[in-house]
C-alpha cells in the first residue's frame, strides 16, 4: 500500500527524521490558510498523487505549463497555484499518459537547498536484507542513474541479527562526500529512517531528494513510503491512510473482500486459488496466444460468497472477453466451488464464455453440478485443455 508524501513525512517525523513544516490542503482557501501558518517568504505548493516525477510533470489543462511542484514567493501566489492545480490532471513519467487528478496539495515551507542527495531503504531479495541505497545524484530519477552511472549508487546491506549501527551510515556519509557536522546529522537521519522502516513494516521508503541545507542540516524534501500489505493487519492506523481515489476501483473492491487482485491489460478474466497456480494460469494463457485481464487469487478458503465476489469484479471489467476458472479443491472442495460458480453465474448473468477446470477433492461431484446447471459452462480436464479452450473462445468472439 502506498500513501501520500505528506502522510509519509508525518510518519517519518515521529521517528526523528527532519522534515519541513507543512500542511495538507483540499481547497485553495485551505492552501491560503496553510501558507499563513508558515514563516515565508518562500512557499512550495506540491501536488499529492501516488506517483513521482511531479516536479517535471505537466497538467493537461494548464495554460501556464508549470509543473506539479511549484516554488512561489507570496501567499497570493500559493492560492493562485492551488486554484490552478486542484481538480486538474497531472501527467508525469510515472502516471502514464492518462495522468492522475490532483485532489489534495501539500503546502510546505521553502527550503534553502545546498545539495540534493538520494536515499532509500528496501528489502533486497538477492541478499534477503534491508539495504540502504544512496547517491549523490539526488533530484534525478534513480532509474536513470542506475542505467547510465551505476557507480554513483552506493549500497549497504544490514545484517538482520546485528541490526543497524552508526558505522553503516558513516560509510555512506563519506561516500556521499559529507563533511564535518553533516556526517553526524546524516547518521542521525539514517538511524531514524531505518527504525521507521522496520517498525512500520515498510516495503520501500525513498527520499529523493534528501537535502543538505545551507545551514548543514539533513532534510527529507520528498518521501515515498510503501508498506508490506501482508503486515497491514498490525497497523490499523496506517491502513486508515489509504486514499481510495488513488486505486483502481476493481482492486479496491478486491482489497475490501480480502481477494488478491491485480488488474492487467489482457482479455481473459482469471479466477484461481493460490498465487502459484494463478501465475501458472497466466503463463499458459500467454503460451496459447492470448493474455490475462487480471491476476486473481481467491485464496485457500474460497467460499461461495468469495467466488461470487470475485466473479462480480471480473465481469465488471469491460476488457474481459472470456473467463477461466482454474481451482484446485483442497480445503475448499470442488462441489462447493462448483456451487459457487453456478450461483454467481445465475446471479450476475453470463455475457462471455466461461471455461471451468476443477481438480482435487470431490472433483466428480463438482463436474456433475456444473454439467447439470443448465448453464453454458465449458468444462476442461486439465490446465492445458482449459487454456486452449478459453483462448479459442476469445478468438471466436473477436
Ligand atoms: P517529485 O519527485 O515528484 O518531482 P519532489 O518532492 O521531489 O517531487 O519535488 C521536486 C523538486 O522540487 C525537488 O527535487 C526540489 O528541487 C524541489 N522542492 C521540493 N520541495 C521543496 C521545498 N520545500 N523547497 C524548495 N524546493 C523544493
Ligand atoms: Mg522527488
TrEMBL record:
GO process terms (BP): succinyl-CoA metabolic process; tricarboxylic acid cycle
Entry's Gene Ontology cellular component terms: cytosol; succinate-CoA ligase complex
Keyword Ligase: yes
Reactions it catalyzes: GTP + succinate + CoA = succinyl-CoA + GDP + phosphate; succinate + ATP + CoA = succinyl-CoA + ADP + phosphate; (S)-malate + ATP + CoA = (S)-malyl-CoA + ADP + phosphate
Alphabetical list of Gene3D superfamilies matching this protein: ATP-grasp fold, A domain, ATP-grasp fold, B domain, Succinyl-CoA synthetase domains
Annotated cofactor note: Binds 1 Mg(2+) ion per subunit.
Binding site for substrate: 273, 330-332
Pathway per the UniProt entry: One-carbon metabolism; formaldehyde assimilation via serine pathway; Carbohydrate metabolism; tricarboxylic acid cycle; succinate from succinyl-CoA (ligase route): step 1/1
EC number: 6.2.1.5
Domain ATP-grasp: 9-236
GO molecular function: ATP binding; magnesium ion binding; malate-CoA ligase activity; succinate-CoA ligase (ADP-forming) activity; succinate-CoA ligase (GDP-forming) activity
Cofactor: Mg(2+)
Keywords: ATP-binding, Ligase, Magnesium, Metal-binding, Nucleotide-binding, Tricarboxylic acid cycle
Broad EC category: ligase
PROSITE patterns: ATP_GRASP
Chain sites annotated for binding Mg(2+): 208, 222
Residues the record lists as binding ATP: 46, 53-55, 108, 111, 116
Pfam families reported in the protein's UniProt record: ATP-grasp_2, Ligase_CoA
Chain's role: Succinyl-CoA synthetase functions in the citric acid cycle (TCA), coupling the hydrolysis of succinyl-CoA to the synthesis of either ATP or GTP and thus represents the only step of substrate-level phosphorylation in the TCA. The beta subunit provides nucleotide specificity of the enzyme and binds the substrate succinate, while the binding sites for coenzyme A and phosphate are found in the alpha subunit.
Sequence similarity: Belongs to the succinate/malate CoA ligase beta subunit family.
Subunit structure of this chain's protein: Heterotetramer of two alpha and two beta subunits.
Protein name per Swiss-Prot or TrEMBL: Succinate--CoA ligase [ADP-forming] subunit beta
Amino acid at each position: 500500500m502506498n500513501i501520500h508524501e505528506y502522510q509519509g513525512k508525518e510518519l517519518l517525523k515521529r521517528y526523528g527524521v527532519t522534515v519541513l513544516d507543512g500542511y495538507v490542503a483540499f481547497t485553495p482557501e485551505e492552501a491560503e490558510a496553510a501558507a499563513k501558518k508558515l514563516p515565508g517568504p518562500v512557499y512550495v505548493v506540491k501536488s499529492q498523487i501516488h506517483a513521482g516525477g511531479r516536479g517535471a510533470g505537466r497538467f493537461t489543462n494548464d495554460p501556464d505549463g508549470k509543473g506539479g511542484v511549484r516554488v512561489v514567493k507570496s501567499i497570493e501566489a500559493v492560492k493562485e497555484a492551488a486554484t490552478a492545480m486542484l481538480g486538474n490532471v497531472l501527467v508525469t513519467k510515472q502516471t502514464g499518459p492518462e495522468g492522475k487528478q490532483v485532489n489534495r496539495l501539500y503546502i510546505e515551507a521553502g527550503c534553502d537547498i545546498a545539495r540534493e542527495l538520494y536515499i532509500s531503504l528496501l528489502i533486497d531479495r538477492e541478499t534477503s536484507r534491508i539495504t540502504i541505497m544512496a547517491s549523490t545524484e539526488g533530484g534525478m530519477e534513480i532509474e536513470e542513474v542506475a542505467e547510465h552511472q551505476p557507480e554513483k549508487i552506493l549500497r549497504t546491506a544490514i545484517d538482520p541479527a546485528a541490526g543497524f549501527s552508526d558505522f553503516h551510515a558513516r560509510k555512506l556519509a563519506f561516500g556521499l562526500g559529507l563533511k564535518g557536522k553533516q556526517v553526524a546529522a546524516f547518521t542521525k537521519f539514517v538511524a531514524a529512517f531505518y527504525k521507521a522502516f522496520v517498525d512500520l513494516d515498510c516495503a520501500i521508503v525513498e527520499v529523493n531528494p534528501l537535502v543538505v541545507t545551507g545551514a548543514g542540516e539533513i532534510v527529507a524534501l520528498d518521501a515515498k513510503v510503501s508498506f508490506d500489505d501482508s503486515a497491514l493487519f498490525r497497523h490499523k492506523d496506517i491502513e486508515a491512510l489509504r486514499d481510495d481515489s488513488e486505486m483502481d476501483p476493481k482492486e479496491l473492491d478486491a482489497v475490501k473482500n480480502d481477494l488478491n487482485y491485480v488488474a492487467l491489460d489482457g482479455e481473459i478474466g482469471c479466477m484461481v486459488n493460490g498465487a502459484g497456480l494463478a501465475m501458472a494460469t497466466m503463463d499458459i494463457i500467454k503460451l496459447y496466444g492470448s493474455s490475462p485481464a487480471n491476476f486473481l487469487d481467491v485464496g485457500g478458503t474460497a467460499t461461495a460468497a468469495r467466488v461470487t465476489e470475485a466473479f462480480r469484479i471480473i465481469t465488471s471489467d469491460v476488457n474481459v472477453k472470456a473467463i477461466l476458472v482454474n481451482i484446485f479443491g483442497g480445503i475448499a472442495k470442488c462441489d462447493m466451488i462448483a456451487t459457487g460458480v453456478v450461483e454467481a453465474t445465475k446471479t450476475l448473468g453470463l455475457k462471455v464464455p466461461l471455461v471451468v477446470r476443477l481438480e482435487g477433492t470431490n472433483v466428480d461431484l463438482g463436474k456433475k453440478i456444473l454439467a447439470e446447471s443448465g448453464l453454458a459452462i465449458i468444462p476442461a480436464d486439465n490446465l492445458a485443455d482449459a487454456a486452449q479452450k478459453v483462448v479459442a473462445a476469445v478468438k471466436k468472439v473477436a
